[in-house]
Design goal:
alpha/beta, Rossmann fold, about 50% helix
């Protein structure tokens, strides 16, 4: 078994995708887990799997992070955990349709899940980490944070996570706590199916596995505040931010073919 790196980790959105993969890799390293999600059956099955396979403690915490009650429940638990030294703010989802035509309630829900939850759980976990001068926080953003055509709400909230993480990492640099904004690109999870997006719109070579994304994230925690896994994703993020290529990227994003394939 790999040498444990963390004593206890709290992972949101843990029932599937990157959240479940974080749980698996951390459990394999001997880390006790608090797993947060809405889907009880999937969460309980994952907890049983990891507890038996790796002999770690796994606590299941059911919560809907689009609600005040759900956020408050996890916030309280994060503050109570005396050994919490890793927080993975992974819960999130992608919207469909544009801002003007989209459902206002869905926009506000995304703000709660992506931003309110991340800020409040981070604030709840930090006192204990700072007292022990040890800890890590991973905020799962996206290369969509740099995209001019991934939707005002989705890109906007993910951009917040990047800047929040970068600035907080600088604030805590000398206090033993590392903060990372993880910005994966196209990753094989159920995320795109739930969002109603057509995965065939982009070449297979652009996709990464959840296992590789998480492995890179954990390996790079503490080595800078921004983690963009994969050379292709780094190149895409650069092209979307570079003034010399931004106009072409925007034009591509406005094309009817791309927007139709993306589900807009």
């Amino acid at each position: 078994m790999p040498k444990p790196t963390f004593r206890t980790a709290l992972v949101t959105g843990a029932s599937a995708g990157l959240g479940a993969e974080f749980a698996r890799q951390l459990a394999a390293a001997g880390t006790d887990l608090v797993l947060v999600a809405r889907r009880e059956e999937k969460l309980a099955a994952l907890a049983e799997e990891l507890g038996k396979a790796h002999h770690v403690g796994v606590e299941v915490l059911l919560a809907d992070l689009s609600t005040e009650e759900g956020i408050a429940r996890v916030e309280r638990r994060a503050g109570e955990l005396t050994g919490l030294d890793l927080l993975v703010n992974n819960a999130g989802y992608g919207g469909r349709g544009g801002f003007a035509a989209g459902d206002a309630a869905n926009h506000m829900s995304m703000l709660k899940v992506h931003i309110d939850t991340t800020v409040r759980l981070t604030r709840a976990a930090l006192p204990g980490m700072l007292d022990r001068a040890r800890g890590g926080i991973i905020n799962v953003a996206s290369i969509a944070a740099f995209s001019p055509f991934s939707g005002p709400m989705y890109s906007g909230t993910k951009s917040f996570l990047v800047l929040f993480s970068e600035n907080l990492h600088g604030e805590l640099r000398d206090k033993g706590v590392s903060v990372q904004a993880l910005c994966p690109g196209l990753t094989h999870t159920e995320f795109h199916e739930v969002a109603g997006m057509d995965k065939s719109a982009l070449p297979k070579g652009l996709w990464m596995t959840a296992e590789r994304v998480v492995r890179i994230s954990l390996r790079r925690l503490g080595r800078g505040s921004l983690c963009i896994p994969g050379l292709r994703n780094k190149a895409i993020a650069f092209l979307m931010r570079c003034p010399l290529t931004l106009a072409a990227v925007r034009a591509l994003g406005r094309s009817r073919f791309i927007r139709k394939k993306a589900g807009h």
